[in-house]
Structure formats: C-alpha cells, structure tokens
Automatic annotation (TrEMBL):
The lineage of its organism: Bacteria, Pseudomonadati, Pseudomonadota, Alphaproteobacteria, Sphingomonadales. Keywords: Amino-acid biosynthesis, Lyase, Pyridoxal phosphate, Threonine biosynthesis. It comes from Sphingomonas tagetis. Its cofactor is pyridoxal 5'-phosphate. Its EC number is 4.2.3.1. Pathway: Amino-acid biosynthesis; L-threonine biosynthesis; L-threonine from L-aspartate: step 5/5. It is an enzyme of class 4 (lyase). NCBIfam families: thrC. One of its GO terms (molecular function) is pyridoxal phosphate binding. This is Threonine synthase. The modification N6-(pyridoxal phosphate)lysine is found at residue 112. Belongs to the threonine synthase family. GO terms for biological process: threonine biosynthetic process. Residues 87-329 form the Tryptophan synthase beta chain-like PALP domain.
Length: 465
C-alpha cells in the first residue's frame, strides 16, 4: 500500500514511513493512493469474529508491505488486551432502532484509546533496531492527550509533548495527562484555544528549521495510522446488525472530523453505510459546511463538550480531496485560501459528493441535556455530553425507519461528571482502575500561545536527530 498527500507534491510513502511522518512535507495529509475493498462475502465473514481478528482483516490491506498479518495480529492482541471489556467496542441497545457503540473501555476511558494503543506499538515496532528518536508533538481538546501519553509513556526512543488549552478541558481529562510522570512525557497548557494549539503543531511540522532539527511526528488524527484503526469498529458494529445484507447508519459526535472520516473509509471499502450523521455542538463549522457549503471559522465557544469546541477540523481536508477527484494542486490552492482568510466555499462537486453519504446537525446545550436525561430514564444508560450530542442528532436524523442507527459513545460519562449530574441528577463514578486519579501528583507547564515560546520549550527538552 502506498500513500499520497492531499496537497499533491510530497513523495508517496509506505505505511511505515507514513506512520512515522504524521503530516506530509507539503502540509497535506496522507491517504491511500486507492481505497482497498472488501467483498460482501468477506464482510459477511467478519460475523462472529473477535475484535482482534476483525481488526486484522480490515487493516491488513493498509499495512501491506510494512507489516505482515502475523505481526499485525500480535500488535492488535497486545493493544486490545488492555481494554476492560472483552468485546473491546461493545454494542448496547437503547430502543428498537438506536444503539450505542461503546468506545471507552480502554485505559483512558475514551475512543482515542482504540487507535492510540495501537499507534504506540507501531512506533515501537518501526523504531526497533534503528537509532531514530521520535519527538511527538500533539494538540488535544481533551482525550487525545491522555490516550497518547498512556500509549507511549516510558517507551524508548520517544518523547511526547502534548499541548492542551489551559482551563478548557475537564479536570479528569487534565489529570489523566498531567499525572503521568514518566520522564519522556511533557504536558503544556497554553493560554489559548485548541485551535491555537493545533495551528502551532502544524506550524512546527512546516517550519524547516524545527522539523530538520527533530524527527517530529503526530499522534493527532492527522496521522493516517490513527484513522485506519478507527475504521475497524464500523465494520465490527455493522456486521452485528446484519451487514452486508442490511444497511446501517452511524451518528458521530464530531470535532476534528477524524472519527467520522473513518466511517467514510469503511463505506469506500464496501461497508453498506446508509448515512453518516455529523453531530456538532454550537461550534458548528462542519454542520455549516455540509449543509450549506460554508466552511468558515467563528469564535470558539467553550461548552460542556470540550472535545467538540473546535473551529478548524483538520481531517475535513481528506474528504475534500477525495471528493475533488484527488486533485492535489486544486486542493492545495483551496486550503491556502482557507488558511489565509479562515473562510472557504465548498465546490459543487464537494457539496454534492458529501450529501450522498453525510447528514449533519447542530445540537444546542439544552438538547444535549435532554438526550442525557432521556437515555438515563428510558434506557438506563448514562451518557457523556459528546455522546449525548450524537444521540440527539441520531434521534431526529432523516433516516428510513427500518435502518438501525448506531451512535458512537466516545467517552466514559465519569470524565464529565459535573455535566452529567446537571442533566440527570446522577453522579457517575470513575472505574476502579483510575479511581485514585484525584490523589495523584500533577506536573505540567503553562505557556503563552506563541510559536516561539512553545518551540523553545520543546527544543530545551527534546533529543535532536
């Protein structure tokens, strides 16, 4: 499998090099040169398989040439052996057509674990026997940071620097990052928004001086390996609801567009996805883009669903590229215009192509709370705010009544205890394995949201090439 950049000028790479690179040298994001496909018979053959075996069959085409199936199976077995539920991503039924896909049974209680536990092992495997040293630089709106830190803490040949917006993540999210005291873990709270943090990370990749001094890579969903791992649970859920003989719809609480783009990849591979519902909160750039073609930024509004408090969705570029006949030069020009003006109109081809598979919705705070209360009272399920936004959108999505709808449950409700308690009157408790989180020592540094301050901090602590 070979990978190309969405902006057309970076060299094609194999899976190993794409994983270690993260962002392409031309500022684009890597995607496979062509989408692999699974036949109906191959999809039907996934029924009854374990999560690990499903993962091997779905991901093997993407890792071909860099990992054989035995190596991939070994890494998946190790990664998913740390999950607290034997199904890894179990389905839960809410009513006659609505289901939850619980993605929070990993070590940091969020869906990011599904991909990042595996990505940490990919890094370790690909660095083994070399003198390479990785400097991971990431931005997090809450869950990516803790999942990435857990995945690489203490691993040789890796330093991780994770930026989060100061006082804009939940206490649980912050502590899951800042209480990891391994010497290769560095937490930075910036005095700005997640978008500020994400912009700085991309700038570091594109700064010739910085990128030449350190071997910088990404754990955010700009890294293709992360998205690839997320494709698996769409297949895992759909075959349990009757695929390929039956279509299935998914509602995805979305900020950076990575999780829902994985659903798009599953559809391109042949999974019968009826619709992908992009569920946003009041920070609704994706809803505006998909419903009216208006991809323009506004001011980030802090909410009870901080992982969705985003105005620039990095992975949206991958969809725009695929819907524009993979014309890297045209997409690069389109993205340059957006990066300079913070506004963009989707082309007719992009709007029409997206409408064939995607729907979108904006969920207001009271609607989020109502969805949490409904799930608690009618289905005896406690939801975190992000999942509740997904469920609210799913319950009013224009999807045929005979098609089951799966809402991706992206985080354990105890990560957002205050919001859950306000909506339901119930206080979720942390699982026993992290029950002492608030007794642990924290370590992090607060920096201004400037490129110079952050790069100077990293340069003092990172190992050069």
């Amino acid at each position: 499998m070979r990978y190309q950049s969405t902006r057309g000028t970076a060299p094609e790479l194999d899976f190993r090099d794409v994983t270690l690179a993260g962002l392409a040298k031309d500022g684009g994001l890597y995607v496979p040169v062509e989408w692999p496909s699974l036949s109906d018979a191959e999809i039907a053959g996934l029924a009854g398989l374990s999560y690990v075996e499903t993962a091997v069959r779905v991901m093997a085409p993407f890792t071909a040439g860099s990992l054989d199936e035995a190596e991939l199976r070994e890494l998946c077995t190790q990664a998913y052996g740390r999950f607290s539920h034997d199904a890894v991503t179990p389905l839960v039924q809410l009513d006659h057509r609505h289901f939850l896909l619980e993605l929070f049974h990993g070590p940091t209680l969020a869906f990011k674990d599904v991909a990042l536990q595996l990505l940490g092992l990919f890094f370790e495997r690909f660095l083994k026997g070399t003198d390479q040293h990785l400097t991971i630089v990431g931005a997090t709106s809450g869950d990516t940071g803790s999942a990435a830190i857990d995945a690489v803490a203490g691993r040789e040949g890796i330093d991780i620097f994770m930026l989060h917006p100061n006082k804009r993540v939940s206490d649980v999210q912050r502590r899951q990052m800042t209480t990891v005291l391994a010497p290769n873990v560095h937490n930075i709270a910036i005095e700005g928004s997640f978008d500020d943090a994400q912009a700085m990370v991309k700038a570091m990749f594109n700064d010739a001086g910085f990128a030449s001094r350190f071997q910088v890579t990404a754990v955010n969903s700009i890294n293709w390996a992360r998205l690839m791992a997320q494709v698996v649970y769409y297949f895992y859920a759909a075959v349990r609801l009757g695929a390929p003989a039956r279509q299935v719809a998914f509602s995805v609480p979305t900020g950076n567009f990575g999780d829902v783009f994985a659903g798009y990849v599953a559809a391109k591979m042949g999974l019968p996805v009826a619709k992908l519902v992009v569920a946003t909160n009041v920070n609704d750039i994706l809803h505006r883009a998909l419903s009216s073609g208006d991809y323009s930024t506004g001011t980030v509004t802090p909410t009870a669903a901080p992982s969705m408090d985003i105005q620039v969705s990095s992975n949206f570029e991958r969809l725009l590229f695929d819907l524009a006949n993979r014309d890297g030069a045209a997409l690069a020009e389109q993205m340059r215009g957006f990066e300079s003006s913070k506004a963009m109109r989707l082309t007719n081809a992009q709007q029409q192509g997206a409408a064939a598979l995607f729907a979108s919705d904006r969920v207001e705070p009271d609607e989020m709370s109502q969805a949490m209360a409904w799930a608690a009272s009618r289905a005896d399920e406690i939801l975190d705010p992000h999942t509740a936004i997904g469920l609210a959108a799913a319950r009013r999505a224009p999807i045929a009544a005979d098609i089951p709808i799966v809402t991706l449950a992206t985080a354990h409700p105890a990560k957002f205890g205050d919001a859950v308690e306000r909506a339901t009157g119930l206080r979720p408790t942390l699982p026993g394995r992290i029950g002492d989180l608030f007794d642990r020592e924290e370590r992090y540094d607060i920096l201004p949201a400037t490129f110079d301050a952050v790069t100077a901090y990293i340069a003092e602590r990172a190992k050069p090439r």
